[in-house]
Amino acid sequence: MIGLEQIGEIARSTPSKIVLLVIDGLGGLPHPETGRTELESAKTPNLDRLAREGICGMIDPVGPGITPGSAPGHLALFGYDPLKFTVGRGILEALGIEFDLKPGDVAARGNFCTMDAKGIITDRRAGRIPTEKCTQLCQLLEAVSIAGVEIFVSPVKEHRFVVVFRGKGLSSQLSDSDPQREGLSPKAVSPLSAEATKAANIANKFIERASATLADRYPTNMVLLRGFARYPDFPKMSEVFSLKPAAIASYPMYRGLAKVVGMEILATGATIEEEFSALAEHYNNYDFFFLHVKETDIAGEDGDFDRKIRIIEEVDRALPRLIDLDPAVIIVTADHSTPAVLKGHSWHPVPFLLRSKWCRPDGVEEFSERACVSGALGSFPATDVMPLALANALKLGKFGA
After folding, report:
1. Are the C-beta atoms of 43 and 272 separated by less than 8 Å?
2. CB-based contacts of 181, cutoff 8 Å, min separation 6
3. Which CATH architecture has domain 4-87+233-392?
4. What is the largest CA-CA distance in the chain?
C-alpha cells in the first residue's frame, strides 16, 4: 500500500467535501430462518440509491480472517495502518470524556461486570447499567488508595469507565484482565516487559480492592480492565491529507480516536437524527466529516437481530439530510462486522459504497453484503479507503513523473 508520507506529497487542499459514514458493526450473517443478514433484511431505499449511483465492494478492516477491535478498524478507515499505528482503548476512552491526561499517565478501559459465587463472569457488561449508576460506582472506586500512585476513576457511558494511574515509573505494557467472553474468570494483569512489573502489581491491587468494594453491589460486583495505554503521537490528518477534518460521534471512545488523528470534535446529541443535524449545522466549516453510528454494533453484540435491522432503517431514513448536502464524496461502510447470531465482532468483510461525480458506477442495485461482493472494487483493505475518498474528491495530484 502507498504510505502516509507518499500520500502527503500528493494530497492537496480543495473546497470539495468528503463524508465518511461509519455504521459500526454493520456487517452481519444470515438469520437461520430467513437466510438474510440484518442489512439484507432492512428496508434501505436511500442506501440502495447511493449504491446504484456509486461504486461498491467489500473491505477487510485488518486482514482476511482477523477479527478487529474498534480502534484498529477505525484507524484503517482513516488511512492509518493498524499494524503500525496502535493505541490502547484506555487512552481513547479518556480522551473521549476529555480527561486531563498528563505525561506518563496510564489509562485503561473498564467494564463493570457480573461475577457469580465461583468467580465466573456471567455478564461482561452487567446488563448495560445506566450511566447514572456507573457514575455512582465510580465515586466508590475513587476511594481506592494504593501507595505511590494516584488513581482516577471516571464514568464513560453505561457500564464503561476509565481508570487512570498516575505515578513514577509506570509502563503501559500490560495484559488485559478482561477475558473478552462470559464463562471464564477474570485474568490477572501481567507485565509484558520487565519494566511493567510495578504497573501490573498496582493494576492487580486496584482490581482486588475494587472487587471488595463492589462485593455487595450485584450485578455490578466486579471490574474488568483492558487496553492499558499512554497517549500516542500519530501524524495528524490535516498534515497528511491536507484536510480540515471533523468528527461527529456520540460515544466517547470514538471521539477519543478522532482526537488522536487530529479531528475536531463537534458537539452532538445521542440520537442518529441529532448526529445528522450536527453534520448539517457545521457542514460549511470543514471538508472532511467522520459521522459515526454506534447502535448497530450494540444490537449485534446483544444478539438482537431485529433491533439491528431497525437501527439500519433509522439511518436510512436520516440519509436524505446527507444526500441533500451533496458532498463530493459520500462513503458508507463499517469498522467491522458484528453479526447478531455471533453476539460479537467477527472477521467477515464489511460492505462498502462510494458515491462521487467522478466514480464509475458498477451496476450494483442495492447496498448489502451479497450485492457488494459483486461490486467493481472487489475486496480490498480498509487502508485504501482514504486514497479512494481523496481521489474522488479531486484532492490527490499525480504520483511520480
Report:
1. no
2. 121, 124, 344
3. 3-Layer(aba) Sandwich (3.40)
4. 70
